[in-house]
Amino acid sequence: MKAKFYSTIILLLICVTANAQSERVLTSGEYDNLKRNHALPQKFLLRETGGSHSVFVPRIQPSANTVQNNTTCNCLLPLDTTFSVVPFINATPPEYRNDDESSAVIPLPFTYCFFGTSVDSIYINNNGNISFGNPYVTFTSDSFPNTNFSMVAPFWGDVDTRGPASGPVYYKMTPTALIIKWEHVGYFSVHGNLQNTFQLIITDGSDPLISGGSNTAFCYGDMQWTTGEASGGTAGFGGTPSTVGANLGDGINYIQFGRFDQAGYGYDGPFGANDSIDWLDSSSFAFDLCSANVAPMPYDCNNDSVYLRLGDTTSIDVSFIDPNPGQVVNISVNGGGLANLTTISNTSGNLARYIGTLVTDASNLGYNTLTLTATDNGSPARSVSYNRIIHIDQVTGIQPVHPATSVAFFPNPFSDQTQLNITWIGKDLSIIITDVTGREVYRAEQLASSVVLNKGDLVKGIYFYRLTDGKSINEKGKLIVQ
Predict the structure, then answer these.
(1) Which of 37, 160, 339, 470 can bridge 188 by disulfide, Cβ–Cβ 3.0-4.6 Å?
(2) CB 47 within 8 A of CB 26
(3) Strand runs (DSSP E) across 224-253, as ranges?
(4) Which CATH class is domain 297-393?
(5) Counting Cβ atoms within 10 Å, is residue 275 exposed (0-12), middle (13-18) or buried (19+)?
(6) 297-393 and 401-481 share one CATH topology?
Protein backbone atom coordinates (compact mmCIF):
# COMPACT_ATOMS: atom_id res chain seq x y z
CA MET A 1 0.00 0.00 0.00
CA LYS A 2 2.80 2.39 0.99
CA ALA A 3 4.72 1.52 -2.20
CA LYS A 4 1.63 2.37 -4.28
CA PHE A 5 1.28 5.70 -2.43
CA TYR A 6 4.91 6.67 -3.12
CA SER A 7 4.56 5.63 -6.75
CA THR A 8 1.56 7.96 -7.11
CA ILE A 9 3.49 10.87 -5.56
CA ILE A 10 6.46 10.30 -7.88
CA LEU A 11 4.14 10.19 -10.91
CA LEU A 12 2.52 13.47 -9.89
CA LEU A 13 5.93 15.11 -9.44
CA ILE A 14 6.98 13.93 -12.91
CA CYS A 15 3.79 15.39 -14.43
CA VAL A 16 4.21 18.73 -12.65
CA THR A 17 7.87 18.92 -13.68
CA ALA A 18 7.07 18.05 -17.28
CA ASN A 19 4.33 20.71 -17.39
CA ALA A 20 6.67 23.31 -15.90
CA GLN A 21 9.28 22.43 -18.49
CA SER A 22 6.76 22.70 -21.34
CA GLU A 23 5.78 26.24 -20.25
CA ARG A 24 9.03 28.15 -19.85
CA VAL A 25 8.87 31.34 -17.86
CA LEU A 26 10.51 34.11 -19.89
CA THR A 27 11.47 37.64 -19.02
CA SER A 28 10.73 40.31 -21.63
CA GLY A 29 14.42 40.40 -22.58
CA GLU A 30 14.55 36.63 -23.09
CA TYR A 31 11.35 36.77 -25.14
CA ASP A 32 12.82 39.52 -27.32
CA ASN A 33 16.02 37.59 -28.03
CA LEU A 34 14.24 34.29 -28.72
CA LYS A 35 11.76 36.03 -31.01
CA ARG A 36 14.52 37.73 -33.01
CA ASN A 37 16.28 34.38 -33.43
CA HIS A 38 13.07 32.50 -34.33
CA ALA A 39 13.53 30.26 -31.27
CA LEU A 40 10.43 30.90 -29.15
CA PRO A 41 9.24 27.71 -27.39
CA GLN A 42 5.82 26.39 -28.29
CA LYS A 43 4.55 27.13 -24.77
CA PHE A 44 5.81 29.83 -22.46
CA LEU A 45 4.75 32.25 -19.75
CA LEU A 46 5.90 35.86 -19.76
CA ARG A 47 7.12 37.14 -16.40
CA GLU A 48 5.96 40.74 -16.00
CA THR A 49 4.58 42.98 -13.29
CA GLY A 50 1.38 43.93 -15.05
CA GLY A 51 -0.67 41.11 -13.60
CA SER A 52 -3.54 39.26 -15.20
CA HIS A 53 -6.98 40.66 -15.96
CA SER A 54 -9.87 38.72 -17.43
CA VAL A 55 -12.24 41.55 -18.43
CA PHE A 56 -11.52 45.08 -19.59
CA VAL A 57 -14.57 47.35 -19.22
CA PRO A 58 -13.91 50.55 -21.15
CA ARG A 59 -15.25 53.99 -20.34
CA ILE A 60 -18.22 54.73 -22.60
CA GLN A 61 -17.99 58.07 -24.37
CA PRO A 62 -20.86 60.10 -25.82
CA SER A 63 -22.22 59.13 -29.20
CA ALA A 64 -19.69 58.94 -32.00
CA ASN A 65 -22.03 61.20 -33.99
CA THR A 66 -20.43 64.16 -32.24
CA VAL A 67 -17.09 63.57 -33.97
CA GLN A 68 -16.05 63.81 -37.60
CA ASN A 69 -18.28 61.57 -39.71
CA ASN A 70 -16.99 62.07 -43.25
CA THR A 71 -15.62 58.55 -43.39
CA THR A 72 -15.98 58.00 -47.11
CA CYS A 73 -13.27 60.59 -47.74
CA ASN A 74 -11.31 60.51 -44.52
CA CYS A 75 -12.19 58.49 -41.46
CA LEU A 76 -8.86 58.97 -39.66
CA LEU A 77 -10.05 60.81 -36.56
CA PRO A 78 -7.72 63.22 -34.74
CA LEU A 79 -6.91 62.25 -31.16
CA ASP A 80 -8.62 64.26 -28.44
CA THR A 81 -9.42 63.90 -24.74
CA THR A 82 -12.18 61.37 -25.45
CA PHE A 83 -9.56 58.78 -26.46
CA SER A 84 -7.71 56.60 -23.93
CA VAL A 85 -4.64 54.37 -24.25
CA VAL A 86 -5.51 50.69 -24.61
CA PRO A 87 -4.54 48.97 -21.30
CA PHE A 88 -2.64 45.99 -22.66
CA ILE A 89 -2.01 43.12 -20.25
CA ASN A 90 1.63 42.79 -19.11
CA ALA A 91 2.33 46.40 -20.04
CA THR A 92 3.03 49.37 -17.80
CA PRO A 93 0.61 52.31 -17.55
CA PRO A 94 -0.01 55.05 -18.50
CA GLU A 95 1.13 54.40 -22.12
CA TYR A 96 1.10 50.59 -21.98
CA ARG A 97 4.02 50.32 -24.41
CA ASN A 98 4.57 46.72 -25.44
CA ASP A 99 5.45 44.14 -28.05
CA ASP A 100 2.95 41.38 -28.97
CA GLU A 101 0.50 42.03 -26.13
CA SER A 102 -3.31 41.97 -26.14
CA SER A 103 -6.03 43.56 -24.06
CA ALA A 104 -8.28 41.59 -21.78
CA VAL A 105 -11.65 40.71 -23.25
CA ILE A 106 -13.67 43.86 -23.98
CA PRO A 107 -17.49 43.73 -23.78
CA LEU A 108 -19.12 45.80 -26.51
CA PRO A 109 -22.13 48.00 -25.64
CA PHE A 110 -23.53 47.16 -29.09
CA THR A 111 -23.73 44.12 -31.36
CA TYR A 112 -21.21 43.92 -34.17
CA CYS A 113 -22.19 41.75 -37.14
CA PHE A 114 -19.22 39.81 -38.52
CA PHE A 115 -20.00 37.69 -41.60
CA GLY A 116 -23.50 37.04 -40.22
CA THR A 117 -22.24 36.26 -36.69
CA SER A 118 -23.29 38.52 -33.80
CA VAL A 119 -20.28 39.63 -31.75
CA ASP A 120 -20.57 41.23 -28.29
CA SER A 121 -16.93 41.18 -27.14
CA ILE A 122 -13.46 41.53 -28.69
CA TYR A 123 -9.75 41.62 -27.92
CA ILE A 124 -7.50 44.45 -29.10
CA ASN A 125 -4.16 43.08 -30.24
CA ASN A 126 -1.11 45.31 -30.44
CA ASN A 127 -0.14 43.83 -33.82
CA GLY A 128 -2.74 45.75 -35.80
CA ASN A 129 -5.94 43.72 -35.40
CA ILE A 130 -8.90 42.84 -33.20
CA SER A 131 -9.97 39.25 -32.59
CA PHE A 132 -12.96 37.26 -31.41
CA GLY A 133 -12.93 34.42 -28.91
CA ASN A 134 -9.18 34.57 -28.25
CA PRO A 135 -6.44 37.18 -28.09
CA TYR A 136 -3.63 36.87 -30.66
CA VAL A 137 0.02 37.63 -30.02
CA THR A 138 1.05 36.33 -33.45
CA PHE A 139 3.46 38.85 -34.96
CA THR A 140 4.09 37.28 -38.39
CA SER A 141 0.96 37.65 -40.50
CA ASP A 142 -0.52 35.16 -42.92
CA SER A 143 -2.76 35.50 -45.95
CA PHE A 144 -6.51 34.91 -45.78
CA PRO A 145 -8.36 32.57 -45.58
CA ASN A 146 -6.85 31.08 -42.44
CA THR A 147 -8.66 28.68 -40.09
CA ASN A 148 -6.43 29.63 -37.14
CA PHE A 149 -7.56 33.23 -36.78
CA SER A 150 -10.84 35.12 -36.45
CA MET A 151 -9.92 38.77 -36.83
CA VAL A 152 -10.43 42.17 -38.42
CA ALA A 153 -7.03 43.51 -39.45
CA PRO A 154 -6.52 47.05 -40.73
CA PHE A 155 -2.79 46.21 -40.67
CA TRP A 156 -1.58 42.89 -39.27
CA GLY A 157 2.15 43.35 -38.77
CA ASP A 158 4.73 43.28 -35.98
CA VAL A 159 3.92 46.51 -34.15
CA ASP A 160 6.37 47.41 -31.37
CA THR A 161 5.54 50.50 -29.30
CA ARG A 162 8.33 50.18 -26.74
CA GLY A 163 10.67 52.72 -28.34
CA PRO A 164 10.46 56.39 -27.30
CA ALA A 165 9.83 57.46 -30.90
CA SER A 166 6.77 55.21 -31.21
CA GLY A 167 3.31 56.27 -30.21
CA PRO A 168 0.92 53.99 -28.30
CA VAL A 169 -2.45 52.49 -29.28
CA TYR A 170 -5.61 54.43 -28.42
CA TYR A 171 -9.31 53.58 -28.27
CA LYS A 172 -12.66 55.28 -27.88
CA MET A 173 -15.89 53.45 -27.07
CA THR A 174 -19.37 54.91 -27.63
CA PRO A 175 -22.77 53.24 -27.25
CA THR A 176 -22.72 52.37 -30.97
CA ALA A 177 -19.06 52.37 -32.09
CA LEU A 178 -15.51 51.39 -31.16
CA ILE A 179 -12.58 53.34 -32.60
CA ILE A 180 -9.01 52.03 -32.28
CA LYS A 181 -6.07 54.09 -33.49
CA TRP A 182 -2.46 52.96 -33.84
CA GLU A 183 -0.74 56.35 -33.67
CA HIS A 184 2.76 56.64 -35.21
CA VAL A 185 3.64 53.09 -34.10
CA GLY A 186 7.05 51.51 -34.68
CA TYR A 187 8.09 47.96 -35.53
CA PHE A 188 10.11 45.10 -33.98
CA SER A 189 12.63 45.34 -32.50
CA VAL A 190 12.10 48.71 -30.79
CA HIS A 191 12.39 50.68 -34.05
CA GLY A 192 10.76 54.08 -34.41
CA ASN A 193 12.65 55.49 -37.39
CA LEU A 194 9.65 54.49 -39.53
CA GLN A 195 6.12 54.80 -38.18
CA ASN A 196 2.62 53.76 -39.21
CA THR A 197 -0.64 55.53 -38.37
CA PHE A 198 -3.88 53.65 -39.00
CA GLN A 199 -7.31 53.20 -37.48
CA LEU A 200 -10.15 50.71 -37.23
CA ILE A 201 -13.81 51.58 -36.65
CA ILE A 202 -16.51 49.01 -35.93
CA THR A 203 -20.15 49.96 -35.30
CA ASP A 204 -23.61 48.54 -34.87
CA GLY A 205 -24.26 49.26 -38.56
CA SER A 206 -26.47 52.30 -37.95
CA ASP A 207 -23.97 54.77 -36.52
CA PRO A 208 -23.44 57.60 -39.08
CA LEU A 209 -19.75 57.68 -38.18
CA ILE A 210 -19.55 55.24 -41.11
CA SER A 211 -21.91 56.21 -43.89
CA GLY A 212 -24.02 54.11 -46.22
CA GLY A 213 -24.99 51.32 -43.80
CA SER A 214 -21.43 50.06 -43.42
CA ASN A 215 -20.26 48.74 -40.06
CA THR A 216 -16.46 48.67 -40.54
CA ALA A 217 -13.85 51.16 -41.73
CA PHE A 218 -10.08 51.00 -42.28
CA CYS A 219 -8.49 54.45 -42.16
CA TYR A 220 -4.86 55.33 -42.90
CA GLY A 221 -2.51 58.21 -42.29
CA ASP A 222 1.16 57.99 -43.20
CA MET A 223 2.26 54.35 -43.57
CA GLN A 224 6.05 53.90 -43.58
CA TRP A 225 6.97 50.27 -42.75
CA THR A 226 5.71 46.75 -43.46
CA THR A 227 7.74 44.09 -41.62
CA GLY A 228 9.56 43.55 -38.32
CA GLU A 229 12.92 41.80 -37.92
CA ALA A 230 11.42 38.60 -36.50
CA SER A 231 9.28 38.24 -39.63
CA GLY A 232 12.30 38.41 -41.92
CA GLY A 233 12.21 42.16 -42.43
CA THR A 234 15.26 44.37 -42.91
CA ALA A 235 14.99 48.06 -42.01
CA GLY A 236 11.20 47.75 -41.98
CA PHE A 237 10.66 45.97 -45.35
CA GLY A 238 10.86 42.56 -47.02
CA GLY A 239 10.31 39.25 -45.28
CA THR A 240 6.76 38.04 -44.70
CA PRO A 241 4.29 40.70 -45.88
CA SER A 242 1.76 42.31 -43.57
CA THR A 243 -1.92 41.64 -44.23
CA VAL A 244 -4.92 43.96 -44.55
CA GLY A 245 -8.34 42.31 -44.44
CA ALA A 246 -10.77 40.30 -42.30
CA ASN A 247 -11.11 36.58 -41.69
CA LEU A 248 -13.91 34.62 -39.99
CA GLY A 249 -11.74 31.54 -39.51
CA ASP A 250 -13.98 29.01 -41.25
CA GLY A 251 -11.89 28.90 -44.43
CA ILE A 252 -14.79 30.38 -46.43
CA ASN A 253 -15.69 33.87 -45.25
CA TYR A 254 -12.91 36.43 -45.62
CA ILE A 255 -11.83 39.54 -47.48
CA GLN A 256 -8.38 40.88 -48.27
CA PHE A 257 -7.20 44.26 -49.51
CA GLY A 258 -3.60 43.23 -50.01
CA ARG A 259 -0.30 42.09 -48.51
CA PHE A 260 2.43 44.68 -48.15
CA ASP A 261 6.21 44.19 -47.99
CA GLN A 262 7.85 47.14 -49.75
CA ALA A 263 8.01 50.91 -50.03
CA GLY A 264 6.42 52.77 -52.93
CA TYR A 265 2.98 53.04 -54.53
CA GLY A 266 2.68 49.78 -56.48
CA TYR A 267 -0.67 47.97 -56.19
CA ASP A 268 -2.23 45.38 -58.49
CA GLY A 269 -5.34 44.40 -56.52
CA PRO A 270 -6.30 42.47 -53.37
CA PHE A 271 -5.01 39.05 -54.45
CA GLY A 272 -2.14 39.86 -56.80
CA ALA A 273 1.56 40.25 -56.10
CA ASN A 274 2.79 41.77 -52.84
CA ASP A 275 2.07 45.49 -52.69
CA SER A 276 3.73 48.76 -51.65
CA ILE A 277 2.85 50.37 -48.34
CA ASP A 278 2.60 53.98 -49.52
CA TRP A 279 -0.45 52.99 -51.56
CA LEU A 280 -2.35 52.97 -48.25
CA ASP A 281 -1.38 56.55 -47.35
CA SER A 282 -4.44 58.73 -46.62
CA SER A 283 -6.79 55.96 -47.84
CA SER A 284 -10.13 55.06 -46.28
CA PHE A 285 -12.31 52.00 -46.88
CA ALA A 286 -15.81 51.73 -45.42
CA PHE A 287 -17.75 48.48 -45.89
CA ASP A 288 -20.38 46.16 -44.44
CA LEU A 289 -18.79 43.06 -42.89
CA CYS A 290 -22.15 41.58 -41.95
CA SER A 291 -22.72 40.37 -45.50
CA ALA A 292 -20.99 37.33 -46.94
CA ASN A 293 -20.43 39.42 -50.09
CA VAL A 294 -18.77 42.76 -49.37
CA ALA A 295 -19.72 45.37 -51.97
CA PRO A 296 -17.04 47.01 -54.15
CA MET A 297 -15.72 50.31 -52.82
CA PRO A 298 -14.20 53.31 -54.55
CA TYR A 299 -10.56 54.12 -53.92
CA ASP A 300 -11.35 57.82 -53.75
CA CYS A 301 -13.60 60.33 -52.00
CA ASN A 302 -17.26 59.93 -52.80
CA ASN A 303 -19.49 62.87 -53.83
CA ASP A 304 -16.44 65.02 -54.42
CA SER A 305 -16.55 68.37 -56.24
CA VAL A 306 -14.25 69.70 -58.95
CA TYR A 307 -14.27 73.35 -60.04
CA LEU A 308 -13.35 74.13 -63.65
CA ARG A 309 -13.39 77.02 -66.11
CA LEU A 310 -14.65 76.93 -69.66
CA GLY A 311 -12.09 75.19 -71.84
CA ASP A 312 -10.36 73.42 -68.97
CA THR A 313 -9.34 69.79 -69.43
CA THR A 314 -9.44 67.42 -66.49
CA SER A 315 -8.93 63.70 -66.05
CA ILE A 316 -11.40 61.29 -64.47
CA ASP A 317 -9.50 58.41 -62.88
CA VAL A 318 -11.49 56.27 -60.44
CA SER A 319 -10.70 52.77 -59.16
CA PHE A 320 -12.99 50.32 -57.37
CA ILE A 321 -11.69 47.53 -55.14
CA ASP A 322 -13.48 44.24 -54.55
CA PRO A 323 -11.85 42.48 -51.57
CA ASN A 324 -13.82 39.26 -52.12
CA PRO A 325 -11.80 36.42 -53.69
CA GLY A 326 -12.41 35.53 -57.32
CA GLN A 327 -14.90 38.27 -58.09
CA VAL A 328 -14.96 40.67 -61.02
CA VAL A 329 -16.18 44.27 -60.92
CA ASN A 330 -17.59 46.05 -63.97
CA ILE A 331 -17.98 49.84 -64.14
CA SER A 332 -20.84 51.64 -65.89
CA VAL A 333 -20.71 55.40 -66.51
CA ASN A 334 -23.49 58.00 -66.52
CA GLY A 335 -22.06 61.28 -67.77
CA GLY A 336 -25.06 63.28 -66.63
CA GLY A 337 -25.23 65.11 -69.95
CA LEU A 338 -21.61 66.28 -69.88
CA ALA A 339 -20.37 67.14 -73.35
CA ASN A 340 -16.85 66.17 -74.44
CA LEU A 341 -16.47 63.33 -71.90
CA THR A 342 -14.16 60.76 -73.49
CA THR A 343 -13.46 57.27 -72.13
CA ILE A 344 -9.79 56.33 -72.35
CA SER A 345 -10.10 52.91 -70.70
CA ASN A 346 -12.56 50.93 -68.58
CA THR A 347 -10.92 47.88 -67.02
CA SER A 348 -12.78 45.15 -65.09
CA GLY A 349 -11.40 42.92 -62.33
CA ASN A 350 -10.85 42.68 -58.57
CA LEU A 351 -9.33 46.11 -59.09
CA ALA A 352 -11.51 47.87 -61.67
CA ARG A 353 -10.48 51.25 -63.09
CA TYR A 354 -12.11 53.91 -65.26
CA ILE A 355 -10.00 56.59 -66.96
CA GLY A 356 -11.54 59.40 -68.97
CA THR A 357 -10.99 63.04 -69.90
CA LEU A 358 -13.36 65.96 -69.88
CA VAL A 359 -13.05 69.21 -71.84
CA THR A 360 -15.51 71.70 -70.36
CA ASP A 361 -18.18 73.08 -72.64
CA ALA A 362 -20.50 76.11 -72.48
CA SER A 363 -23.52 73.79 -72.63
CA ASN A 364 -22.61 72.48 -69.17
CA LEU A 365 -22.21 75.72 -67.20
CA GLY A 366 -23.12 75.21 -63.55
CA TYR A 367 -23.23 71.97 -61.57
CA ASN A 368 -23.06 68.56 -63.26
CA THR A 369 -23.02 65.06 -61.75
CA LEU A 370 -20.86 62.30 -63.20
CA THR A 371 -21.81 58.88 -61.78
CA LEU A 372 -19.74 55.71 -61.99
CA THR A 373 -21.40 52.51 -60.76
CA ALA A 374 -19.36 49.41 -59.91
CA THR A 375 -21.16 46.05 -59.86
CA ASP A 376 -19.59 42.75 -58.80
CA ASN A 377 -20.53 39.23 -59.91
CA GLY A 378 -21.06 37.90 -56.39
CA SER A 379 -24.14 36.09 -55.16
CA PRO A 380 -26.13 38.23 -54.75
CA ALA A 381 -24.44 40.85 -56.92
CA ARG A 382 -23.74 44.14 -55.16
CA SER A 383 -23.21 47.63 -56.54
CA VAL A 384 -21.84 50.93 -55.34
CA SER A 385 -21.98 54.33 -57.02
CA TYR A 386 -19.40 57.09 -57.04
CA ASN A 387 -20.44 60.66 -57.80
CA ARG A 388 -18.17 63.46 -58.94
CA ILE A 389 -19.80 66.88 -58.89
CA ILE A 390 -18.31 69.06 -61.65
CA HIS A 391 -18.90 72.80 -61.47
CA ILE A 392 -18.11 74.71 -64.65
CA ASP A 393 -17.72 78.48 -64.26
CA GLN A 394 -16.90 81.14 -66.83
CA VAL A 395 -15.09 83.38 -64.34
CA THR A 396 -13.69 81.98 -61.12
CA GLY A 397 -13.08 78.34 -62.07
CA ILE A 398 -10.51 76.55 -59.98
CA GLN A 399 -8.18 79.46 -59.32
CA PRO A 400 -8.44 82.30 -56.82
CA VAL A 401 -7.22 85.66 -58.07
CA HIS A 402 -5.73 88.45 -55.95
CA PRO A 403 -5.08 91.92 -57.43
CA ALA A 404 -1.35 91.50 -56.88
CA THR A 405 -1.30 87.75 -57.36
CA SER A 406 -1.78 85.42 -60.29
CA VAL A 407 -2.37 81.88 -59.03
CA ALA A 408 -3.04 78.97 -61.39
CA PHE A 409 -3.76 75.41 -60.32
CA PHE A 410 -4.34 73.50 -63.50
CA PRO A 411 -5.77 70.99 -63.84
CA ASN A 412 -7.32 70.27 -60.47
CA PRO A 413 -7.41 67.31 -59.85
CA PHE A 414 -3.99 66.50 -61.26
CA SER A 415 -3.47 63.81 -63.85
CA ASP A 416 -0.45 61.50 -63.70
CA GLN A 417 1.84 63.88 -65.58
CA THR A 418 0.38 67.20 -64.41
CA GLN A 419 2.50 69.63 -62.47
CA LEU A 420 1.14 72.21 -60.07
CA ASN A 421 2.35 75.69 -61.03
CA ILE A 422 1.94 78.70 -58.76
CA THR A 423 2.98 82.08 -60.09
CA TRP A 424 2.63 85.50 -58.49
CA ILE A 425 3.86 89.02 -59.15
CA GLY A 426 5.82 91.29 -56.84
CA LYS A 427 5.18 89.51 -53.55
CA ASP A 428 7.23 87.25 -51.29
CA LEU A 429 4.71 84.58 -50.40
CA SER A 430 4.61 81.31 -48.54
CA ILE A 431 2.60 78.26 -49.57
CA ILE A 432 1.40 75.81 -46.93
CA ILE A 433 -0.36 72.59 -47.91
CA THR A 434 -2.15 70.44 -45.31
CA ASP A 435 -4.00 67.15 -45.52
CA VAL A 436 -7.61 66.71 -44.43
CA THR A 437 -6.59 66.15 -40.80
CA GLY A 438 -4.77 69.50 -40.70
CA ARG A 439 -1.29 67.97 -40.82
CA GLU A 440 1.17 70.08 -42.79
CA VAL A 441 2.62 68.09 -45.69
CA TYR A 442 4.40 70.82 -47.68
CA ARG A 443 5.71 74.33 -47.08
CA ALA A 444 7.77 76.72 -49.21
CA GLU A 445 8.62 80.24 -48.08
CA GLN A 446 9.87 83.53 -49.54
CA LEU A 447 8.83 82.61 -53.05
CA ALA A 448 9.19 85.49 -55.49
CA SER A 449 8.11 83.96 -58.77
CA SER A 450 6.93 80.36 -58.94
CA VAL A 451 7.14 76.87 -57.49
CA VAL A 452 6.45 73.57 -59.21
CA LEU A 453 5.12 70.52 -57.38
CA ASN A 454 5.14 67.13 -59.02
CA LYS A 455 2.27 64.79 -58.26
CA GLY A 456 4.76 62.43 -56.64
CA ASP A 457 5.28 64.97 -53.86
CA LEU A 458 1.75 64.34 -52.58
CA VAL A 459 0.02 61.01 -52.11
CA LYS A 460 -3.49 60.46 -53.39
CA GLY A 461 -6.13 62.39 -51.47
CA ILE A 462 -7.65 65.76 -50.64
CA TYR A 463 -5.45 68.69 -49.60
CA PHE A 464 -5.91 72.33 -48.66
CA TYR A 465 -3.52 75.09 -49.63
CA ARG A 466 -2.94 78.55 -48.21
CA LEU A 467 -0.93 81.29 -49.90
CA THR A 468 0.03 84.13 -47.60
CA ASP A 469 2.43 87.04 -47.28
CA GLY A 470 1.59 87.38 -43.58
CA LYS A 471 -0.28 90.61 -44.27
CA SER A 472 -2.86 91.32 -46.94
CA ILE A 473 -2.70 88.16 -49.04
CA ASN A 474 -4.31 85.04 -47.65
CA GLU A 475 -5.65 82.86 -50.48
CA LYS A 476 -7.11 79.46 -49.67
CA GLY A 477 -8.38 76.53 -51.71
CA LYS A 478 -8.56 72.79 -52.19
CA LEU A 479 -6.32 70.44 -54.18
CA ILE A 480 -7.21 66.94 -55.34
CA VAL A 481 -4.53 64.37 -56.07
CA GLN A 482 -5.84 61.30 -57.89
Answers:
(1) 160
(2) yes
(3) 242-247
(4) mainly beta
(5) buried
(6) yes
